[in-house]
Write a structure and sequence with these properties.
0% of the residues lie in helices and 60% in strands. The chain is mostly beta strands. The chain has one domain (4-69): Roll (Pnp Oxidase, Chain A), CATH 2.30.110.20. A 4-stranded antiparallel β-sheet has the order 1-4-5-6, with no helix packed on it. A two-stranded antiparallel sheet has the order 2-3. β4 and β5 (54-63) form a beta hairpin.
């Protein structure tokens, strides 16, 4: 079940960096990706732990062009 969404508008990939190592117990490869965007929206879907049904929704957004959010 989906529980978290991120939506970006007018987005560009601004950087990709591979990483990770076999030292210190870190055995999986890692990759860091950076984005530049005009607008971003976050949506958290709260689930009922007993039934798995949707129990709530929390959404926020930010627009870099207009410097506004909600």
């Amino acid at each position: 079940e989906k529980y978290y969404e991120i939506k970006m508008t007018d987005v560009l990939v601004s950087g990709i960096r591979p990483g990770g190592s076999a030292q210190g117990g870190e055995t999986l490869p890692l990759e860091e990706v950076s984005f530049n965007y005009a607008k971003i929206e976050w949506n958290y879907i709260q689930l009922d732990h007993n039934t798995g049904a949707v129990a709530g929704n929390f959404a926020k957004w930010w627009d870099l062009k207009t410097n506004t959010g909600g």
